Amino acid sequence: MAVHADRESLEISDDCSDDGFPRSPPGYSYRMNRYARPLVDYARNEWQARTKYTALSVSPDASDSPQWVQMFMSMVRAPRFRRYAIVYLLLLVSCLGGWLFLSPRLEEQEALLHSLDPSTKDDVGGWFGMNALPRFDNITHLRDLDTSLLPAVKAQKDGQSSSRRLIFIGDVHGCKDELELLLDEVSFDHDRDHLIFAGDMINKGPDSPGVVDLARQYAASCVRGNHEDRVLLLRHDMEASNTLSPDSDGDISPELFFGLKKRERALARQLSNEQVQWLDACPVILNVGQIPELGQVVVVHGGLVPGVELDKQDPASVMNMLTIDLDTHVPSSTRNGTKWTKLFNKHQSLLYSSLKDSVPDPKSQVMTVIYGHDSKNSLSLKTYTKGLDSGCVKGGKLTAMVVEDGGKQSVIQVRCRNHLKE
After folding, report:
1. How far is CA 330 from the centre of its chain?
2. H/E/C letters for each residue in 311-355?
3. CA pair distance 107, 347, nearest whole angstrom
4. Cβ–Cβ < 8 Å for 286, 356
5. What's one Pfam family here (predicted)?
6. Deepest of 240, 351, 365, 377, by most Cβ within 10 A of its Cβ?
């Protein structure tokens, strides 16, 4: 037993150092020197392999930078910082875009309110329409529509009741085929429907006399547009100067007849006396009357100056206006200014707001204008202005606005050929 114990102790002593501790295995000191770093440096978790965390590692040269630089770079490299930066940048761009979009409109609304402020009237010497206007011979300035033609339930016939409709039609410009197609689309019924043309029925297109004959056939109403006005004035001047005959066209000086084109002179000769008389009877302003939800409905070709009585509106401006000066309320046939519809809608909106709490039916006290003339803006349906010129003669559309009982409105359009290229 002793021998065995000594032998065992000898074996143990071979594996121990002189101080009695076990000896290190071969290469142990080398491995210890190699891995003499904190254990956390050797953790191999999944988060270390992700790309978004690799940016968090500090570069070897980072310790050479100032502390504030290191802090700033650590924030920039953080994924959450980048997300917040993108969100705030989008908010900034949205606010800037919204301001650029809203700022002109806010300025425009302020200008409209200032223009309608009665206290500014004296500053400019009075608004347009406050003084007497010149009268024009051979022109019907204002006419009222027969009230029996307004949308209303007719008396029962054969056990059935039918309602009337008003069909307002934009600038036709001699496009008879498209007009007939539009009447089919609206299911026009001469017994219950009444047509109202918003001017410029003639000129430019292929069949102006045919359009006039169709309107006469259906006993339609109309207003005088700037093209009717030009052709009719030309016709009367030709009659007065004995140049109505086509043979006399070569004797016309360039200054005569306002320099109108040969096509317009040909149309002035082409119209019959009956057609001319019918067009001459078209008023500049047609007062349709009261229609529910629309108030007092008026039809003109160009536009109206807000706040001016119908009988004081300038006929030439009514047929030609596109814009209006906000300081003086003087209308213009150019596009250098504010659209007259913006000032008119603002004026009627303020009027309605002032009456809605003081009268039983404030809608009846406001005015809605149905007009043509402005093909550049095409169909433009606002609260108190309805623009129906959608450029039929130049390949656009021909528009009809149908008004039924109760003021219900619907818009129907047909496509047109470009007759200006033919």
Report:
1. 24
2. HHCCHHHHHHCCEECCCCCCEECCCCCEEHHHHHHHHHHHHHHHH
3. 16
4. no
5. Metallophos
6. 351
Please count the other Cβ atoms lying within 10 Å of the Cβ belonging to residue 377: 15
**Cβ atoms within 10 A of the Cβ of 157, count?**
9
Tell me how far apart the alpha carbons of residues 318 and 294 are, in angstroms, rounded to a whole number: 20
Integer Cα distance of 301 and 170 in angstroms: 9
**How confident is residue 73, by pLDDT bands cut at 50, 70 and 90?**
confident
Q: Which of 387, 356, 351, 386 is nearest to 368 (CA)?
A: 386
Which tokens sit at 74? 């650590």
CA distance 212 to 202: 8
Q: pTM score > 0.70 for this model? A: yes
Burial pattern 313-333, b for ≥16 Cβ within 10 A else e, equals bbbbbbbbbbbbbbeebbbbe
**Which has the closest alpha carbon to 219: 271, 167, 273, 285?**
167
Cβ atoms of residues 387 and 375 within 8 Å: no
| CA–CA dist 96, 81 (Å, integer) | 22
> Is 231 in contact with 268 (CB distance < 8 Å)?
yes
